[in-house]
Specification:
By secondary structure, this protein is α/β, with parallel strands linked by helices. It contains ten helices and 13 strands. The chain has two domains: 194 residues, 3-Layer(aba) Sandwich (Rossmann fold), CATH 3.40.50.720; 111 residues, UDP-galactose 4-epimerase, domain 1, CATH 3.90.25.
Length: 312
């Protein structure tokens, strides 16, 4: 198949590209390199440099003619979305519409959309959260992901565009950017390696373990995407572990994986848009696509620590 990955030079997208290439597919990368990195590019992929909210995306799709369009380009930061919701909407909503318009015009067979299980449910009533829970996003980022899902359903109903929506937990692993505001595992790895103070947000007092999140390793996320290439049409599926881990436990796990003596972190209140708790129910993924997480947090943190230590 011919598969185009938007954000294919980024963290998750580049791992997807590598997997699709390894499986023998022809792969295109659409990326404006605002978050993506040249070093992440697979040499076998054809690269198209474009902002997803720019009309030039139609030309890129017309040239590559993908069978599958994998949507992973986004403004990824919850904090940034609160700070600048206009920019967040331009990228995540306008960009989504541009891509779906181009997909219809170029006869794309199917769209796989990376949504956010970590934000679309908002303050949930019970945990782990199932896909049929109310959508109560508390950040512009979460709102744009909900909007993206609705637009995708519209294009499915109106034009017969096949699609699958994957709602990710907190994805982590090698290639995650340690210098942004999202991606706490990468940030902690870099802070510890540089012997700098790290902050545990969502803490009400010193020693408070902070927010609880569902951390899912990037290789497991890639496997989910591979499994839905030929199935799960029209489905919306959580991709998480069903296990909640506090920010403090992640910090301590990374320090142990790096084998470093570490200073106690600083503690701070929740950042704008932060949720106190989110854990996803992955049962539907097991039922619909036979997917279960294979990498536990400790193993994933060890792999991440090894990657950042090597880059140091």
């Amino acid at each position: 198949m011919r598969i185009m990955v938007t954000g294919g030079a980024g963290f998750i997208g580049s791992h997807l590209v590598d997997a699709f290439v390894a499986d023998g597919h022809e792969v295109g990368v659409l990326d404006d390199f605002s978050n993506g990195k040249e070093e992440n590019l697979n040499p076998a992929a054809e690269v198209f440099r474009s902002d997803i909210s720019d009309p030039s995306v139609e030309e890129a799709l017309a040239r590559f003619r993908p069978d599958i369009l994998s949507l992973h380009a986004a403004q990824p930061s919850v904090v940034q979305s609160v700070r600048d919701p206009v920019h967040d909407a331009r990228v995540n909503v306008q960009g989504m519409i541009r891509l779906l318009e181009a997909a219809v015009k170029t006869d794309v067979g199917k769209v796989i959309f990376a949504s956010s299980g970590g934000t679309v449910y908002g303050a949930a009533d019970s945990f782990p959260v199932r896909e049929d829970a109310p959508l109560r996003a508390l950040s512009p980022y979460g709102v744009t992901k909900i909007a993206g899902e609705h637009y995708l359903r519209f294009y499915g109903n109106e034009y017969g565009l096949r699609f699958t929506i994957l709602r990710y937990g907190n994805v982590f692993g090698p290639r995650q950017d340690p210098h942004g505001e999202a991606g706490v595992v990468a940030i902690f790895c870099q802070k510890l390696l540089d012997d700098l103070e790290a902050s545990v947000f969502g803490a009400e007092h010193k020693g408070d373990p902070g927010c609880t999140r569902d951390y899912v390793y990037v290789a497991d996320v890639v496997r989910a995407n591979v499994l839905v290439l030929d199935g799960a049409d029209g489905e919306t599926i959580n991709i998480g572990t069903g296990v909640g881990s506090t920010t403090l436990s992640v910090y301590e796990g990374i320090a142990a994986a790096l084998g470093l003596k570490h200073q106690a972190p600083a503690y701070g209140p929740p950042r704008p848009g932060d949720l106190p708790r989110m854990v996803l129910d992955p049962s539907l993924a097991a039922d619909r696509i036979g997917w279960r997480p294979q990498t536990d947090l400790r193993t994933g943190l060890a792999e991440s620590a090894r990657y950042y230590k090597k880059k140091k």
